[in-house]
Amino acid sequence: MKNLSLSTKVLLGVLLGVLTGLFFGEEVAWMGIIGDVFIGLLQMTVLPYIMFSLIVNIGRLSMDTGKKIIRYGLLFLFLLLIVGLIYLIILPLSFPAWTSGNFYSSDFVQPNEPFDFVKLYIPANPFESMSDNVVPAVVLFSIFIGLGVMKLPNKEAFLKPLDVLTDGLNQVNKMIIKITPIGVFSIAAGVISTLSWSDLSRLQGYLLVYLLAVILITFLVLPYLISIFTPYSSKTIFKITRSTLITIFATGKIIVVYPQLIENIKEIIRSDENSTEEGQDRVDIIMPLAYPFPNLGTFMIFIFVPFAAWFTGKAMGFMDYPIFLSSTFLSSFVAPITGLPFSLDLLKIPKETFQLFVVSTVLTDRIRVVLGAFHLIALTLLTISASGGYLKFKKRKFIQGLIVISISTAVSVIGLRYILEVSMKNIPTNLEIVNSFELISPEQEFVVFETSKKNPNPKWRGENTLSRIKRRGKIRVGFYEQAGPFTFRNKDSILVGYGIDLAHQLAADLDVSIEFITIIPGKLVSGINGDHYDIVMSDIFLSSLYAEQLELSQPYLNVTLALLTRQDNKMFDSFDITSKLDTFTISYIERKEISKEFLSFFPKGGAYPIPQMKDFLAHDGAVIIEKDSSKIDSIIFDAHLTSAERAAATTVLKPGYKVVNPLPYHINNALVFPLARDNVWRSYIDKWIDFRKKDGTFDKIYDQWILGNPYQKKEKKWSILENIIKPRFEASNNAVKDSIPEK
Questions:
Q1: 361, containing H or E segment
Q2: N or C: which end of the chain has fewer CB within 10 A?
Q3: Model confidence over 150-184: pLDDT tens digits?
């Protein structure tokens, strides 16, 4: 082992960690703590190193040299980002045709948090920026200190001690680097032991396209750029930086090996016979200066935006790309975890897809930092070559590179599109996921009555509803047909949904069976007052009219009003009372006072009731309605007013629609259970709601039917030990026992 190079040891550490995680599974999840300790040790010297290095090296610069470095640095940064923009346009062509609706997300009702660019870049309190690890602000602070020191006549008295301290920090980093194989082994084992392959399978389109981007740019585009303009060969660069790049991949962070990366670049410069000390010293300036700016690793992460649009069935159009590319440039100045939601919201892509991105970071964080590190290597070498006067354009190399890169990119995109066309056939759409959902509550015996009739067992004198339910052994539950995700029939015509699941739980608690009664549109009030149902468990808004006419339970769920409209309808994408948005027609079901509240923002807007949402969907908004007692007319509706939760479910059940809210704020409402008029029964239901909310039943059912997260009992992650070796060992033992004759 002593004869092995550090890069070989690091690579072995990664491979052994992966195998350990696969073999033992969750049993070695604790090793992630050791990995965190290793990363923490690497990080502890980085920020001080960047600060002191910048102050020392800028302080010793002349103004002319500083201007030259900044000018060339920005020029080549712009050139590299143009490469990223080109690939952000080309790579989405890899995505084949795909349609899928969107589950509801609580992001719909959350206000957008603006970026605090001031705090990110302006060190109003440098010590706070240092303690919070705000690198851009710390770098800017160090630059200003360096500029201030630059003009001092006796600056060496200050800079020499800092020089010694910088060297000391570098030595500490080198000491920690020696334990890298152990650190990356622990990180790999911890990550693999908790990795969910089922989640990652839905992300394969994004992961493959992003991996393609990293491979093409890291191993093809950037090496060609360096060789076209500088005297450094790709072979030398990869040989020197190999162990550092592997460590960066394993840790998922560039900054933890920043000092080592700087040393690697200096070694690359020394490999050229015409290298100078001045060129090596400039690495200490350029690298910290370049770190706060966007790198191609972070830049290409935003390929997730066209992926999310494609995955949700709303592939980006040509006119969306200027907005996408400009927002990507701005968002890439901050971490993807912060910048991506901004871009998704700007392009009206459902932000629940961001949860998929969070899952993907287990892998992409380790891939993007490799590209990010090579971006910094390329930027530094190009800038040093230009500022040092030995930048040279090699025309022949440029033509060769252009041909190789163009052919490789075209073949890769076409090949990946074919692979995704084949593999995505095995990935369920959101509609298929919904149809696979099963009841979470214990299923009770039930029957479904298609016609609404009065309870065949009238109450006895003085009997309350609860007593009758217990006497009959049956509870009558009213529901609306196709009111997903609350009450609807799946592809097998089985009655399911949020309300149906709760109905089974309520019946289980009462120890009775269920009679589901279909509610005739417009007959809810007469049906419940006519003793057709004991309780209604579809999505019923709390309203003053219902409060006057019906007995209602306490609210059990808060929802947000929204519009359901066609994907291509841009009318409601933003609020502007002075625009044509002021003249439109929407439909609604039975809740006239709620439609009035919505239309209070749009005096010229129109709203008409329709019996069921399926009437709106049947002919893309063209509905024949009775406008008054003597006239029947056909109206083309621009949108349908309902809850965001129900609208989102409709986009899943019927792709081609989207959820929008054109108002400057969100109108919230509560859902309630209409009940038979009975104080005892209402008191029981209210207490049942309280109890089942506190024990998590409502949350579990909500997560599945509203958010689209299938309920699963916690199971151990797959591992070789648990799923292959132990079952075979137990089977072998059982076979031996069976072969021994009984005494």
A1: helix 354-388
A2: C
A3: 878 888 888 888 888 888 887 887 788 788 788 87
